Amino acid sequence: MGTAIVQRIHAHATPELMEAVTVTRFWSMVQSAGTDDCWTWAGDLDKNGYGVFFYQDRNRPAHELALSFTTGEKRIGRLDTCHSCDTPACCNPAHLRFDTRQSNVDDMINRDRQPRAGKLTDQEIIIIRGWRQAGARQKDLAEQFGVTDGTISMIVRGIRWPKVGGPIESDRSQYRKKVA
Ligand SMILES: [Zn+2]
Predict the structure, then answer these.
(1) How close is the Cα of 33 to the center of ligand 1, in Å?
(2) CA of 152 to the centre of ligand 1 (A)
(3) DSSP SS3 for 172
């Protein structure tokens, strides 16, 4: 919607109409797709990749507004706006919920976005890398050490704990084939 039109509406509009215009403009910046797909924010992003939209005198997270505009709920202070899809720019209300910070952290750990830091010793990390190079399957290592496959994968590739010793899995496909 052109600025001139918005200004003309502004001159005469009730707050309700202005709100409707703003919400319409908001949704025009969301690339909606299928019900289950991520709906990517097409406007500005902050440094963490979250959408930003100027609303009621300040920049606000687009995903938070997407949920508020859909449900009519406002986020209260102690809650986060959480993504079930791990896509910061996603504004699909079906992927969003207001939840506690701790629950958000638990959720990340459950889905293995973060390793269970501190659970493994340096010695265990070196052993895992050694066994992996010797041909152990990630699945078996995960079971052995009580962590997820994803954590093992990040350890053997040196993404997590890069400074701890032990052989790091390279991207050589020949190596991957050997241990797959
Ligand atoms: Zn999503």
Answers:
(1) 10
(2) 26
(3) coil
